[in-house]
Amino acid sequence: MNLKQEADLLEQVLSIAETDYAQAYRFLQDAYEKSPAAYGPQTLYFLACLAGGSGLSETALGWLRTAIDDNGWWYRPEVLIDDDLEALNGNPEFLSLKAVSDARYQKARETSKAVFSRNAKTAENLFLAVHGNTQNADTAREDWTPVLAKNDRWQLETIQSAEPDGCGTYRWSYDMISFLPVASVLEATQAEGYEKIVCGGFSAGCDMLLRAICFTPARCDVLALQSPWIPVLQEHTDALMRALREKHIALRIFCGLEDEDCLPLARQLYAAAQAASLPVMLTTQEHTRHQFPGKPYTLEDILSPGPEARV
């Protein structure tokens, strides 16, 4: 299973579902049936919700049975309380499946710990990648590896959240605790003698990086934020701008023009940074939803952005 390819496919599905749930269900079902082993828990969850939302409640139950009973997967309890699955409320088999899934989630939550991939300094510069929700450290590494283009002067490392999202994936909460592992890693690496430290975040990972910069001594040279979902901006804009200025951190913001949720936040962050006279660039990406663009940008675009960057 390739989480990045799966995520890109599910973005296509979401786009279709905006106008036609049944068509979105058929599209995803066809993709899944061609290669079931290539898809993970998120795909089966989408299939269940799309089936349920199309009035196929028994089919929806079948997808959850495959995911939980047959594959041994599990989901965060909240996601199984969904309007698309409402017809299953009170169904004994659904309640049994949910109970099994909830128990597995709780066990994972009790044993999960944040994971930092770095063992030692192996290059002049450090790129720290922070995943988004329903992702993991492997996803972050796969997303940012093309940006670094095998540059041997840069060491790519990841930090994985301690909070499980679903089977094999993790999430960040928008509070004053979840970001602390990110801050801790940044503070620890500051004394390692790297010439430059760049942090790359995707979606919720962007919020964790901004909180680390805003609320702790953690610092870096550049923040590269892709598809930023950043609730921290709503209540802490002034404190965030002040921290970025005092720590001399440059902002590089990237967001898809079809990312309806994150594009307004990306533009809001850009405007706030501009008003604060901070070094900032916003690059919007055509034909891109909540994902990395098909053609990756480069390390040079992050360190020395050219005139192609636009708002």
Report on the structure:
With 311 residues, this protein is α/β, with parallel strands linked by helices. Helix content is 46%, strand content 15%. The protein contains eleven helices and nine strands. The strands form two sheets. A seven-stranded mixed beta sheet has the order 1-3-2-6-7-8-9, sandwiched between helices. A two-stranded antiparallel sheet has the order 4-5. It is globular, with a radius of gyration of 20 Å.
Our estimate of the beta-strand percent is 15-25%
Strand neighbour order, sheet with most strands: 1-3-2-6-7-8-9
Instruction: Report how far apart the termini are.
Output: 35 Å
Proportion of residues in helical segments: 40-55%
Structural class: alpha/beta
Low-confidence stretches: none
Got a strand count?
9
Tally of helical segments: 11
Radius of gyration over alpha carbons? 20 Å
Mind describing the biggest β-sheet? 7 strands, mixed
- Quote the average pLDDT: 95
> SSE order, as H and E?
HHHHHEEHEEEHEHEHEHEH
Shape: globular
